[in-house]
Amino acid sequence: MREIRFDRFGSPDVLTLHTDAPVPEPAPDEVLVRVAFAGLNPLDFKIRDGSSGRAEDLELPAGTGREMAGTVIGAGSDLDEAELGSRGLTVGTRVFGMRAPGDGRGVAAEVIAISADDLAPIPGEIPDEDLPRWAGLSLVGLTAIATVRDTAGIEEGETVLIHGGAGGVGQLLIPMVLEAGATTVLATGRSANAERIRELGAIPIAYDTTDWVQEVQHLTDGRGVDVVLDTHYHSTFLPSLDQLAGGGRIVALPSLADLSPALQRGIEARIPAIVPGRDRLDRLAQGIRAGRYPLEVSEVLPMDEIAQAHHRLAEGHTRGKLVLEISG
Ligand SMILES: NC(=O)c1ccc[n+]([C@@H]2O[C@H](COP(=O)([O-])OP(=O)(O)OC[C@H]3O[C@@H](n4cnc5c(N)ncnc54)[C@H](OP(=O)(O)O)[C@@H]3O)[C@@H](O)[C@H]2O)c1
């Protein structure tokens, strides 16, 4: 079968498409999935270049990709038909999901073995043309839930500033922050993405054509915001500390973000951690189905363009999601 692997950390060129990879054997609690599409994330290039904490214990050669959508084609010995049925994961069911944080195996392969706990069924009425969106949903969706609910604890009536509102996580943060009761949501992005940010329900701030700090001050009548959710971090984290109203808090998304400038000033600052789980995947499925989380796929690339896809991810201007076609 076809599978993308890399045998050393480095540039995107270390990613190689193999055509003779062995089909994996599922462990007793695992399901075998024929992958249709794999979602791509900045985490993928950080693991590939070795800069992610996740790269530390990774055995090479390794696969790439964390999340996908596909079809159940088999299961391990603990998962008989009745057990699969009780989970809604019988053979032939379309599923989506992501590897749990502790599972370093990739998903960019025609067939993968993955824990049944890390999958959820895709509702039957969803057309196959929509599968790329489901492939790109779980990692950003679980991140947005962890950010809004577990980490920021957004409350009714708060004013929230999101940096990177048109990115993968940003496109789910906006609707989830509104669902949590925020009354005003400001979101930065390039002017080309302003309309998308507005469609999602936030007030766009075009950081490439205006001074975003002045805009935040203007839009909040000089009060500042209660919460900053910073998916960009690099050039936004430090100036954001001065945009917080008294008692405000900041959440930085990159796992290796340095929070100390905030903590030294007594500002509450945190980094979210994904909590996997079927209940959360089901909640994402319901949100997409009901039209509440209109996550956008900006591009679907073939497997042999994985190196270009990683270059694109690293540029940091992905709109919504980049997705890889595996056997869709
Ligand atoms: N802690 C965790 O568990 C966790 C989980 C998932 C992701 N993450 C991290 O979260 C970050 C975001 O992930 P993602 O998937 O959303 O990335 P992404 O899809 O690449 O989106 C990043 C967004 O940042 C925006 N951006 C770039 N420069 C900016 C600037 N100067 N000011 C404001 N916005 C800017 C871009 O929008 P424009 O094109 O409009 O500039 C882009 O849409 C990554 O570092 C990722 O590794 C952490």
Automatic annotation (TrEMBL):
One Pfam family matching this protein: ADH_N
Keywords for the protein's UniProt record, in alphabetical order: NADP, Oxidoreductase
Species classification: Bacteria, Bacillati, Actinomycetota, Actinomycetes, Micrococcales
Domain Enoyl reductase (ER): 10-324
Domain of life: Bacteria
InterPro entries assigned: ADH-like_N, ER, GroES-like_sf, NAD(P)-bd_dom_sf
UniProt GO MF annotations: NADPH binding; oxidoreductase activity, acting on NAD(P)H
SUPFAM superfamilies reported in the protein's UniProt record: GroES-like, NAD(P)-binding Rossmann-fold domains
Species in which this protein is naturally found: Brachybacterium avium
The protein, known as: Zn-dependent oxidoreductase
